Amino acid sequence: MGAILFIRRERSARYPLLDLKLVARPLVSSGLAYKAAAGLATAGLGYLVTLQLQLDWGWTPAHAAIGMLPQVIVLVAAGPFVSKFVERVGFDRAAWLSAAAVVFGLAVYAVLGSFGYLWIAIALVLVAAGIRVNGVVAGTNVLRGLPENRTSIGAALVDTASEVATGVGIAASGTILATLFTGRIATSNWSMHQTAQFREAVTIAGLALTAAAAALVGWGIVRVRSAADGQPTMSVDDVAMST
Fold this sequence. Notes:
By secondary structure, the chain is mainly α. It has one domain (24-226, 233-242): Growth Hormone, Chain: A, CATH 1.20.1250. Helices cover 80% and strands 0% of the residues. The protein has eleven helices and no strands. It has helices at 2-12, 20-23, 26-56, 61-67, 69-77, 79-89, 91-112, 117-144, 151-180, 192-225, 236-242. The chain is globular, with a radius of gyration of 19 Å.
C-alpha cells in the first residue's frame, strides 16, 4: 500500500522527488532489477546460513564467521578479473550472467544446503562471484540508460534498490521462519520436531528467495532486450568516475 501511495504521489506532484519516467527506461529498470536480485539473494543467504550454522548445526559464532569465508575470499580475489570479464562478454551479457549466478547459488543452498557444508560453500562462492560482477554492470546499465545530467540520481537508485532488496530478503526469510517454527528459535536443545520445522522453513525461505530473485532477473533480461539500440557506451572506469 505504501508503494502504491508513493507512486500516486510522485505522478501527481508538480516537482516529484523521483521522476518515474527515468525508472521506466529499459536499461534503468533492468539494471535496478539485477541489483535488487543480488541484494535479495545476498541478504537472504547470509541470514539463513548464519542461523543454520549456529542454531541447527551448533557452530560457535567464531566458527560460523569462518564458515562465511568462501564468500569473502571470492569478493576480494575476483576484483582484478571483473573488468576483463566485462570487457570480454559485454555489459549486457555480464549483467544477466552475474545475476543468474546469484540465483543459481541461492538455489543450490535451498535444495542442497542441508546435506553438508560443502554445498553451502559452493552456494556462497556462486553468489559472491555473481554480486562481484553485478555490482559493476548493474550500475553501469542504469547510468547508460539515463541522460548525462541525471547520473547522480542513477547512482542513488542503484544503492536504494540494493538496500530495499536487502531488507526485503531478511524480512521475508525471518517471517517464514517465524511462521513455521514453534517455540523460541534462539534456545538450545531443540526437539526433533523443532529441528524438522527449522530445516523445512530454511528450505521454503531459500526457494521463495530463489523464485523472487529469478523473477527479477527475468524481468531485467526482458527490459534490456527492449532497450533501444545506440545506447552510449561506458567503461568500468567511467562508472567509477560517475559514482
